Amino acid sequence: MTEGSADLTGRVIGMIESIYSLPPGVVTIDSARGEIEQWDSLGHLVLILQLEQEFGVQLSPEDIETMTSVRAIADGLALKLAA
């Protein structure tokens, strides 16, 4: 993981903790949707909208469908931001 991707991952983790009102340190790069109670279908929509606003990207339905873990979100955003 490069420094840039570590920073991106940290931002994603912070957003998830903030959106779902979780204490710092609960969410890791390996955290996934099924492990966080608040990360249900509505919570996923809220997260996606916040990610689009925060990073200035437009996520396709295919992108959204695959973003089910912190790692997948960070990887997907990295690709979008590099394009």
Q: What is the overall number of helices?
A: 4
Q: Give the domain tally.
A: 1
Shape: globular
Do you know the CATH topology?
Non-ribosomal Peptide Synthetase Peptidyl Carrier Protein, Chain A
- Kindly report how far apart the N and C termini lie: 19 Å
Low-confidence stretches: none
The helix/strand series, from N terminus to C terminus, equals HHHH
Round the Cα radius of gyration to an integer and report it: 12 Å
Helix content: 55-70%
Q: Taking all residues together, what is the mean pLDDT?
A: 93
CATH class: Mainly Alpha
Just name the CATH architecture.
Answer: Orthogonal Bundle
- Could you name the CATH homologous superfamily? ACP-like
Structural class: mainly alpha
What does the largest sheet look like? none
* Proportion of residues in β-strands: under 5%
Topology:
Elements: H1 3-19, H2 41-55, H3 61-66, H4 70-82
Helix pairs in contact: 1-2, 1-4
Structure at a glance:
It contains four helices and no strands. It has 83 residues and is mostly helical.
Structure description:
This protein is 61% helix and 0% strand. The chain is mainly α and 83 residues long. It has one domain (3-82): Orthogonal Bundle (Non-ribosomal Peptide Synthetase Peptidyl Carrier Protein, Chain A).
Label this structure with key terms.
4 helices; 83 residues; globular; 0% strand; mainly alpha
